[in-house]
């Protein structure tokens, strides 16, 4: 459309320009009508110069050359003696460009697109291009499903032949998908196919996922998912014949209709492996996931190619390729697969770099790396290095890139880009907990002290339950072989009644513990440690002056053993960690079992032991869902009579880290308060077990938030007869179900849960809403 208009203007200008009576030699050229464009600029575009001869057949070329600049709205030629006079009318320029009302499409993106089309401040104003921009923006919003979008363009005159261009955008709301229709499906139900897509009709969680909002991009992704689902189930010839989107009259909803042609199921006739094999052929064949006679599956074939590539990459052939050449027998509906291997050259690591580690020294990260520089590349060692870095408690995420070294074909550089987690070096806090109420704390607690990876802590906290002072130190690489050492010195004064536990005593305790964790074994994707330690504990029990408020259990124990205990402790344990990362893991697990033996440091102290187990597993499911299972058990007993086991070392259940929906530490046996006949105070038990099954949901709000639905079960028991002290028994397991949200705040992780007990007794203390600060990341 632009060229015919330009040609018409050119013809009109030529006809309006007086024809030369005869040709003449141009001695001088004058430019009239310019305002912002200098005459020198106009001269530079002219096809004629002073001293040249101008005839009537050359005037059209002059006018056309000036029109092509885009600077002028109107051009005429005139002659005065030997002077050529060029009269121009300049086009208006865009003095200011304002865009408002947009949020879905950023302003910088809109500005860049318009600048590429010569719409920008200082450029010549062209209404025709602006109209195209207006329509193009509408099309962009239509692709996003915003069919009610409106683009208004207003042009206002400004001084000095300039204009103000205002683009006012009303984006509207994304249209909802009211219905998805699939035509031509016979092998699978429509609901099954819709579940494979990234679009859906409105549902319970679509206000979060926004899968019910239409966009062209989501539709195309859904069509690809639909096709892949058929290919994974043997329908090699499947075709999505068409997809139509019908908009409702109010433009707020759409109907999506897809037409599929399924075809027939194909099976695998067999396969062969050709090419050059850098590792034994039998080892590559073991990586193939398909078998003759099975239904064709695109996913199994892709997994086979990846497994073979990984096997070769583990031996240094990181640029090895496995290509597939299928032979299709339509008559028998069979497919013969030919995998061709091209290994390329064996590749070595030149350098390993770390980036974005502003708080952590390179040495701390490098000692977690299993891949050595100058050695052949191993994909498994590179991935294991990434996993180990992610397991550091001060790392949130790690991204790995492998880059070929320029001008070489057998060397690569590896870079680990880390995202560090916030950790305060100096803290002072005022907090509130449902159990402990107001809490005051101050201290220095750094898990990555001065970037060395060591943990150093000095803490003091005070609440109605406890006054606690501690100093702790952990060196994860106490030796070069990776043996870690942890030392903790603490002093505490405890009032159990503030934690829903027995009111019949308080205690003062001083502790020192020194433990070592020794790496053992070499297991792929897992870290195993053997732990040894020793310690000293000094405990004093204080009873209230009014002995009527001392339970029979506490009174009997102190009568037999006194109220002061000095113990030496020896500990041993095993741990295994196969998680993909420490913060918000998505696969793998962590297990730890430990035994603690306490022996007397004086003749009147106690001899007892405890056994503890804690484990959690994470199994990734489809669409970013993760199944989580967690379990914990604890058992303690005396080396002599079971009643000689100290009650103040009992295990407790209930609360945020146990069975949610029940008040913290309230499950299990209860004591009898002397003189009252009441059974009101939980005592815990020498045996505890709890477990949890959870479904971790995809996070659509922030990477710092994790949401989970859960089912909990647990309780505590006394393995000896508690009734001899007038107390109560335990009863069966308690169950609860609910949801939990964990937020990685600047103050530390915050857990909030809402749970409903599914099985409980009348005397149980229920608590639907619970929260905690400083909880576990898992």
Explain what this protein looks like in three dimensions.
By secondary structure, the chain is of the alpha+beta class. It contains 13 helices and 35 strands. The strands form 8 sheets. A 16-stranded antiparallel β-sheet has the order 18-19-20-21-22-23-24-25-26-27-28-31-32-33-34-35, with no helix packed on it. α1 packs across α3 (59-68). It is elongated.
Q: What is the spatial order of strands in the main beta sheet? A: 18-19-20-21-22-23-24-25-26-27-28-31-32-33-34-35
Structural class: alpha+beta
Indicate the low-confidence ranges by residue numbers: 12-17
Largest sheet composition: 16 strands, antiparallel
Number of strands: 35
Topology at a glance:
Elements: H1 2-16, E1 24-25, E2 28-32, H2 39-45, E3 53-54, H3 59-68, E4 72-80, E5 83-90, E6 93-100, H4 107-116, H5 127-143, E7 150-158, E8 162-170, E9 176-183, H6 190-194, H7 206-209, H8 216-231, E10 239-247, E11 253-261, E12 267-275, H9 281-285, H10 298-313, E13 321-329, E14 334-342, E15 348-355, H11 362-366, H12 379-390, E16 395-404, E17 411-420, E18 427-433, E19 437-446, E20 455-462, E21 466-475, E22 484-494, E23 506-519, E24 527-542, H13 552-561, E25 564-577, E26 588-600, E27 608-620, E28 626-638, E29 670-671, E30 681-682, E31 687-697, E32 705-717, E33 734-745, E34 748-759, E35 769-773
Parallel strand pairs: 2-5, 6-8, 9-11, 12-14, 15-17
Antiparallel strand pairs: 1-3, 4-5, 7-8, 10-11, 13-14, 16-17, 18-19, 19-20, 20-21, 21-22, 22-23, 23-24, 24-25, 25-26, 26-27, 27-28, 28-31, 29-30, 31-32, 32-33, 33-34, 34-35
Helix pairs in contact: 1-3
């Amino acid at each position: 459309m632009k060229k015919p208009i330009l040609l018409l203007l050119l013809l009109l200008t030529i006809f309006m320009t007086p024809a030369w009576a005869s040709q003449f030699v141009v001695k001088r050229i004058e430019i009239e009508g310019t305002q912002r464009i200098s005459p020198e600029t106009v001269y530079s575009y002219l096809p004629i110069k002073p001293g040249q001869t101008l005839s009537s057949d050359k005037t059209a070329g002059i006018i056309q050359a000036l029109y092509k600049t885009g600077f002028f709205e109107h051009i005429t030629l005139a002659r005065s003696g030997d002077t050529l006079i060029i009269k121009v009318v300049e086009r208006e320029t865009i003095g200011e460009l304002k865009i408002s009302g947009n949020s879905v499409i950023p302003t910088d993106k809109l500005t860049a697109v318009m600048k590429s089309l010569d719409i920008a401040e200082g450029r010549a104003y062209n209404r025709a291009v602006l109209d195209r921009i207006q329509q193009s923006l509408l099309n962009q919003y239509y692709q996003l499903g915003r069919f009610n979008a409106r683009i208004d363009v207003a042009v206002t005159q400004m001084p000095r032949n300039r204009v103000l261009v205002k683009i006012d955008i009303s984006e509207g709301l994304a249209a909802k998908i009211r219905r998805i229709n699939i035509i031509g499906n016979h092998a699978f139900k429509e609901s099954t196919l819709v579940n494979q897509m990234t679009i859906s009709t409105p549902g319970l969680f679509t206000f979060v996922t926004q899968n019910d909002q239409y966009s062209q991009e989501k539709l195309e992704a859904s069509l690809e998912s639909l096709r892949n689902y058929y290919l994974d189930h043997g329908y090699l010839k499947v075709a999505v014949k068409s997809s139509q989107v019908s908009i409702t009259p109010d433009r707020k909803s759409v109907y999506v209709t897809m037409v599929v042609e399924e075809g027939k199921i194909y099976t695998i006739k067999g396969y062969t492996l050709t090419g050059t094999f850098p590792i034994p052929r039998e080892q590559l064949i073991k990586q193939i996931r398909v078998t003759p006679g099975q239904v064709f599956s695109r996913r199994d074939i892709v997994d086979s190619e990846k497994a073979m590539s990984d096997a070769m990459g583990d031996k240094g052939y990181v640029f090895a390729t496995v290509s597939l050449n299928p032979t299709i027998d339509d008559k028998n509906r069979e497919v013969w697969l030919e995998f061709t291997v091209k290994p390329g050259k064996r590749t070595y690591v030149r350098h390993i770099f770390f980036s974005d580690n502003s708080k952590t020294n390179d040495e701390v990260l490098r000692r977690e790396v299993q891949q050595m520089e100058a050695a052949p590349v191993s994909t498994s060692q590179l991935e294991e290095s990434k996993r180990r870095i992610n397991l550091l408690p001060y790392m949130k995420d790690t991204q790995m890139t492998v880059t070929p070294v320029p001008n070489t074909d057998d060397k690569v550089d590896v870079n680990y880009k880390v995202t560090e987690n916030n950790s305060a070096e100096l803290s002072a806090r005022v907090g509130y907990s449902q159990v402990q109420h107001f809490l005051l704390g101050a201290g220095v607690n750094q898990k990555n002290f001065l970037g060395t990876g060591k943990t150093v802590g000095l803490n003091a906290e005070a609440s109605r339950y406890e006054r606690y002072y501690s100093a702790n130190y952990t060196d994860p690489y106490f030796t070069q072989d990776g043996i870690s050492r942890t030392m903790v010195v603490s002093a505490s004064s405890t009032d159990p009644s503030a934690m829903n536990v027995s009111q019949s005593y308080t205690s003062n305790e001083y502790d020192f513990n020194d433990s070592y964790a020794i790496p053992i074994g070499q297991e792929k994707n897992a870290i195993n440690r053997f732990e040894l330690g020793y310690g000293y504990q000094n405990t004093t029990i204080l009873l209230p002056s009014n002995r009527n408020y001392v339970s029979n259990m506490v009174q009997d124990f102190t009568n037999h053993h006194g109220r002061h205990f000095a113990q030496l402790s020896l500990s041993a344990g095993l741990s295994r960690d196969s998680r993909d990362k420490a913060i918000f893991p998505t696969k793998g697990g962590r297990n730890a079992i430990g035994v603690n033996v306490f022996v007397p440091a004086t003749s009147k102290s106690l001899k007892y032991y405890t056994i503890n187990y804690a484990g959690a597993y994470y199994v990734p499911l489809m669409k970013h869902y993760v199944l989580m299972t967690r379990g914990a058990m604890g058992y303690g007993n005396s080396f002599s009579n079971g009643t000689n086991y100290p009650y103040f070392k009992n295990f407790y259940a209930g609360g945020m880290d146990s069975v949610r929906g029940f008040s913290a530490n309230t499950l299990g046996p209860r004591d009898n308060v002397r003189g009252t006949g009441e059974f009101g105070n939980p005592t815990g038990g020498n045996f505890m077990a709890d477990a949890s099954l959870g479904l971790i949901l995809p996070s659509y709000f922030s990477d710092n938030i994790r949401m989970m639905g859960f089912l909990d079960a647990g309780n505590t028991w006394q393995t000896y007869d508690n009734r001899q002290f007038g107390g109560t028994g335990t009863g069966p397991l308690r169950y609860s179900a609910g949801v939990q949200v964990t937020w990685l705040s600047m103050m530390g992780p915050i857990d909030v849960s809402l749970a409903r007990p599914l099985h409980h007794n009348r005397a149980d203390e229920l608590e639907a809403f619970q929260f905690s600060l400083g909880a576990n990341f898992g």
